[in-house]
Amino acid sequence: MAEYITSGDSDEMGNVIFFNNRGNKQLSFDFVPGSLQLDGTDAVTYYVDETRPSGNVSVEESTSAIVASMDTWEAASCSELGITRIPSDGRPTGFYSALLGFGGSFSYVADVVHGGWLPGIFFDRLRPNGSRSILGVTFTIIYVDGNGNPVDTNNDNKGDVAWREIYYNDNFTWSAGASPGFDIETVSLHEVGHGLSQAHFGKAFRTTSNGKLHFSPRAVMNATYSGVQTTVDGTDNAGHCSIWGNWPKN
Ligand SMILES: [Zn+2]
């Protein structure tokens, strides 16, 4: 499965309400504690692939932004994730990039892998016009049984996650903080929300007269970018805590 965030000015979003996700703020798949964690620990590990840099932000700046977003989720007071970075060492990463012919590796690297920036044509494979509408995407790779059905070893009614990987669309202009461009930390914070099993949340409206977006509530987990947002608000925190508040007991 894949969750993506759009740039907010793509035509196919159409007119008034273009998304409305008021579910339980959780994806239907989640990590499981203990032996099924591929690294054998309950800590959430992550890796930043620095071999696929953005076309217009330095690797140093983009990695700093990604690390900052990981630190923001780690700082949530309701959870003890033990988020740990595995140092970048140039190894190939990316199950989905490998699958779609953009290089990579089918091997486990970390629980959450930032696979770097890929060309627009990768995103066209995800949905029509994806190269011009999708900013970033998070893939969830799950365990299946011999019949291809999701495995749920801890009976939490969520399929067991092997790992997640995040890609950014290099067809857009990116920035580290200042405009113009899409802020890397903001998009990373959103994608890592998916990486930590949160779903989209909130309604977006476009005012026809001036084309401006309005959000209700505005949240990191809105499905559309709406400017720099590098802190988690109440809605995002509640969604996070509902998933991770008891980890690793759930
Ligand atoms: Zn998203």
Automatic annotation (TrEMBL):
Q: Which InterPro entries match?
A: MetalloPept_cat_dom_sf
Q: Give the source's domain of life in one word.
A: Bacteria
Q: Name one GO molecular function term.
A: metallopeptidase activity
From the Swiss-Prot or TrEMBL record, give the protein name. Peptidase M10 metallopeptidase domain-containing protein
Q: Which organism is it from?
A: Neolewinella litorea
